[in-house]
Task: structure prediction
Amino acid sequence: MRACVTGASGLIGSQVVRALLAAGHRARALVRRSSDLRQLHGLDVPLVNADLRDPLSLRPAFEGCDTVFHCAAVFAYWDTSPEELSRSNVEGTREVLRVAAEAGVRRVVVTSSSITCGSSGGPVARDEAWLPGEEYLPDYFVTKLEQERTAFALGAELGLEVVAACPTIVVGGPDWRLVPSNALITRYLADPLRTTYPGGCNLVSVRDVAAGHVLLAERGLPGERYLLGGENWAWRTIHQTLSELCGTRGPWATASHTGAYLAATLGEIRAVLTSRAPATTRAEARTMGRFYWYRHDKAAGLGYRPRPARQALVEALGWLVTSPHLTDRVRAGLRPHPEVTSARELLPRPLEGGEPVGG
Amino acid sequence: MTVVAAVARSTRVRPLTAAELLADAVARAGLWDLLAERAHGEPGGLAVLLTPGMSAYGDPATAVSAALVEHLVDLLHEHGYRDVTVGAARCGPDTWLAGPGLPETCRRLGYGGRTPQGHGYRLVDLSEEVEPADFPDSAVLHGSGMARGWLEAGFRINIAKNSTHPEFGYALCLANLFGVLPQDDKHHHYRARRDGAEVIVDLLRRYPPDFHLVDAVVSSHGCAGSQVGRPLRTGTVIAAPDGVLADLVGALLMGVDPVSSPLNARVLGDCGLPDAYRIDGDLTPYQGWRNPPRPLVEAVRRLAPDGRAHRLFSVAAWHVAPGTAEVTDPALARLSRLLTALIRAADANPAAAAALCALLGATASASATVRAWRTGNAKDGLRRRDVALAVDPDAYTHADYDRIADLLRPLETVVDALPADAWQMRWQHVGHSILFGCERTVNAPYPEFVRRVDVSRSISYMTDYLGGRVHVVSRDGRGRPTRQIERNLYLAQPNYLAYYGGPPIDVCKLESVEYGERRQRICWRTVRSPNGSAAYDDGSVTFLPADGGGRTRIVIRVRQRFTLPLTWQVIRPDTRPKLRDPLVQDSYQRFFTRTLDNFEAQYEGRPFRIGRPWEELDDLEAAELPTQRLTEAARMLRTLAAQAASQALTVPTPPGRLGPDGFWHVTPGDLPVRTPLLEEFRASLRPAVAGFWQGLREAAARDRRSRHTP
Result:
């Protein structure tokens, strides 16, 4: 496969590049000129500078590729307007598909989201046949829905094979920008009250999601969407596991909807005053209590085998507990389990002039 | 040769003038013999530098008498020493003063360049013409310069005022040496960035004065005699070739324990007294002498020298002589007037003394609490102090380093035999010390790991390492250190001990390093703890290949015994194992988990160090006192208040109205209106507030629904 990955400097995109290289495919990483390339550290992959807002820059990146993985998206609940989200997630997808068709690309795997299948009020797992109901949808959710619809419609119009990958809550590292799904972990560890909340989610390792993307490129049916998930857990179970793996106690409190909303409001006010991103937003607080539980039988039929949720958390923590996303004060209170420390994959720093000293 | 400390005193039965006291003291202390020895028969060619204690802008009562200095100049000339220079120092609040300049102000103090007997001398500013000095790499002043006048002097005479000091208790020859150092901002460079005692020890070791005098003809006593003058005629001159000895005599005459000053105690500990010495003179304490009250001294000592409160006190407590200069910052000037007035009042009024002690005590408590909080919660903001090695490298032979591994072997055997927990940590109390061991196998190939993680720097990878100094004694054929001395500082462990006054852990270690094909190892033995924070901190770090070299095993074994703060000593946790064991286990597990994380971080090149080293920018920032911010804030508030009053909290709106066509429609007679500012603000907030209430109502409804759901 000769593939191009958009959003290759992001959490999923970088892992898709890794998975492609590991599987022996030829990959090309599409990044913006201003992108932080730490996610691609240690990878021998050609970089192409392009911007979704500039279709002309996309064409050279897609030339000669038979598959495009469109992982680029804005995943944020703060500091982005609905228009900006739509421009990046919907208009950007439209441009990628148009240029891909022009460049002779056969298949496009679009990174969608499990939230396009909606969420449940109780512990019920949904599959690809479901759609969102009357529940509250933050702007990001809305744009992902719109992105998926646009991709399938435009794919059919342009004669492109479009397959949608719908990852659930993706955890793992390296994640230098800290996506909201990993922030769910760091937020809990930074919370002195170790607060849990009702509802649940489906946890999946970013590596499994990346492997799932490659699988869909190889075996996915055009015009279909595939949920790429792991295990369905209640938030309390997730938080208990996090505490256990980090050598702390908790959870000690359960948030009410009102409490979570007020805390998020205060967090947003503080964020405005300090010009920093809030730990949580009102949009996220309003999704609390829902069950984002999914089945991935359709992808499993293609050979998708995700790791257990505990292992996904272990690997995510292996990176997150030593990352800059946790303050020194928070880290001082953690005592990661050997399971976590042994899962850490270390990347050697480049040697400077004059080294080695100890070798 | 026996060193003589001479005390010349004027008494009722034998009254002597200042000149006579001086001549008597220097003669008995052997000044002329020392000078003759140094001059090699050519007294005219010997450059003699006198450094009298003075703050040129300060209270004349706190400075060495210019008349006494000129008497000494006369005596020197009479003995043929014609090349005499007086070095003037800037100290106290000089950085924040505006005045006619140092030379002019020195002239006002009485230094005219020619004595009444017509003997000439030069006056130099010791802050100028600074040249590189040759301090060894083990010195805290390594890399610092000194005034050319000091470096080139053939004979240096240090002259101190006999005075009390609110922090040291007394300030004599050793304290006066801060004045000969070149930086203008003495407090920042020689108290905050570095430990003052270490600075003086380095100076005494590398560029010492040759003779010391204490001008106690008219002394300055009371709460802060060195800063706010309170003259007392004591009719004494002390002379000695050794500064520590001169201070010891001076302290005895004040009726205080010579080692009650932390500065003198530390210098005495490091440099010691001369091998043979004799005190020649009457040591009866001065009549009517008042030392600073003990609570005051304790309160000032609790202010950390590298903190803002200490800095503000040390600057504001100086009395600036009227007419010599003006304090440039109005808030600092007010604070200085208030504080010096309170100090003066405290000398006469016990209630004022109590108020001063209470004020400083409260400030010290607040400052210590903030510092303790930062120890646990804001480590990156802490500054690493420059420190000396604090041990003499020449005092140890190679055999001392080579013995360390053998000394540790029995301890390591015991540690290895202890049961390990899930984290591969093992520990046990042995007497009052703790044996601890831990290990981790990391996902890094051994050859790559040892290339990136220098085993000889293992101490610096420990959690909460706050800097130090390393002196390499020997290296192998590839230039790698094999024997070294290291002084290292850590934050108080566990961090919460800082709230109980726990000091940073400060230890000096001998270290031996091995670089084997299949093993790299550093072992260390503590030889000194400058602040008494540790009795032992011995141990080893070993790197071993694991899984055939595909991974690396890090093994740490230590034996430690740290000094607990007073409160915890009273609790005596050793007698309460149920209290002690969980606390000890928790703190060790946290410390070494993070230490092992730091080894990984070093391999990956991730930042993990705490604290900030001093940079040039810090020197600039240090020049800004908190009072200056206060002044700026007051000015800004005044400006804002004036603006608000002039605009009456309104914003102008143009005449007319905006039509649906997007154009602004103005009809004759329309006038600009002023919308109240608050109304404007409320209007901009209205949508956000409405959105908030809607979200809150929905959240409450969800809560109600979830309560009704079984």
